[in-house]
Amino acid sequence: MPTIEEELGRRSQLYSLLMPVMSQFVPGLDKGKGMYFLFIKCETKTPGGLLARPVLTSYYKSSHFKDRPFDPYTNYTSPNETILCQDSYQSMYSQMLCGLSQNKEVLRVGAVFSSGFIRAIRFLEKHWALLCHDIRTGTLNPLITDPSVREAVTKTLKPDPELAGFIESECGKESWQGIITRLWPNTKYIDVIVTGTMSQYIPTLDYYSNGLPLVCTMYASSECYFGVNLNPLCKPSEVSYTLIPTMCYYEFLPVHRNNGLSNSIAMPKSLNEKEQQELVDLVDVKLGQEYELVVTTYAGLYRYRVGDVLRVAGFKNNAPQFNFVCRKNVVLSIDTDKTDEVELQNAVRNAVSHLMPFDARLTEYTSYADTTTIPGHYVLYWELTQNGSTTIPPSIFEDCCLTIEESLDNVYRQNRVFDAIGPLEIKIVEIGTFDKLMDYAISLGASINQYKTPRCVKFAPIVELLNSRVVCSYFSPKCPKWTTPGLTQWTNIN
């Protein structure tokens, strides 16, 4: 997305609103620190020479973040150097070490997305013994080779055998339920996004935190930052955001529902003439109506369809407040990836070419974002028919998995390489499984004339039905290729 220097200042202003709002609901946050797991990703350049990088990387590397004046409300356990380390393992290890060594000072914990925070807890499960050794001896693991990280961490790391023993005792227990409140006993809430597709992580967060409040403080995207949550301690299902009018110019395209489906199958980023006539301004939205968000930004986007569907939940004085309903047309998402139906269909089409030599074809398929694993991963359920007698070897299905991953977009492949998403899995189901799926949908009231196989499933009984008929499963054997101009290919070192 195009951006300009002054946009970072505007986004910093929105960040500055978050803690004053939180302090109205949770007093004393200036008396301790926040343990946030924040990361950057590598940069590249466009063919024209412009710098290209994720929006949060731009912010963390800017003077607005690096040179921010001391503020007790934005005092973090992680030194800047650990956040700005491009090596994901070294960054995660050093941030976790700093958070553990200051465990009594931590009053709030979080990350940008729920998936990122859970990934940090999973990292702790794997590496707590090494971390305890560093805390006990006051030394930093030699695997951390970044000089700036080593210097920053060793300034605060002191030998603490008592704390190391305490962490070992807690992490060594059979159950990790409540591990967050056990290791960081003064934590008052978890600051992560749990709306939209991130809501699938709520049960896991509740398990690890013993039900600490889950706080969504702000609403933002790569295109622009939008607004804040003025009632941050509300239930995740009730989160609403008040848009800040100075962030951009907002317009809203009404979403018309037809049998529970939106009025659009494919979502172009530009508006046609009819849609432009339907647009309404921020002051004209109606309570309860759903809208697709359209923005014109200071950085140059004109009437750009963000892809978010919002519902007007109420008003703060005269300012409308919005629930985030969903991303339009997205069927699968684990982290920052957003795979739509067309992209998934094209990827599957590329993969099934591996089956042709065996005279086999794909009869039907659906997908599922499985977040019971850490990290979460895509699961595809395939029903096959085979006319040939030659058995299809496992390596062919593994090739299918990898081909699908290679066919997905750059964001998905980058997340795979950086271990934010696990290997894609194909589950082969018994013949007749999708007939059973249709029968089940009809038993719930679906019309047999209008029934279509869903390309993504989320309803637990349907997932259970599919899993009960799995005959074998296969995983992608390696990470898909992910390259950026001017850089060698990245591989997952974890």
TrEMBL record:
The reply to whether DNA-binding figures as a keyword in the UniProt entry is: no
Q: Which InterPro entries match?
A: GH3 (IPR004993), GH3_C (IPR055378), GH3_M (IPR055377)
Where in the numbering of this chain does the GH3 middle domain appear?
241-327
Q: Which UniProt keywords apply?
A: Ligase
User: Per the database record, which ranges form the GH3 C-terminal domain?
Assistant: 343-459
UniProt record similarity statement: Belongs to the IAA-amido conjugating enzyme family.
Q: What is the name attached to this protein's record? A: Indole-3-acetic acid-amido synthetase
Species, as recorded: Rehmannia glutinosa (Chinese foxglove)
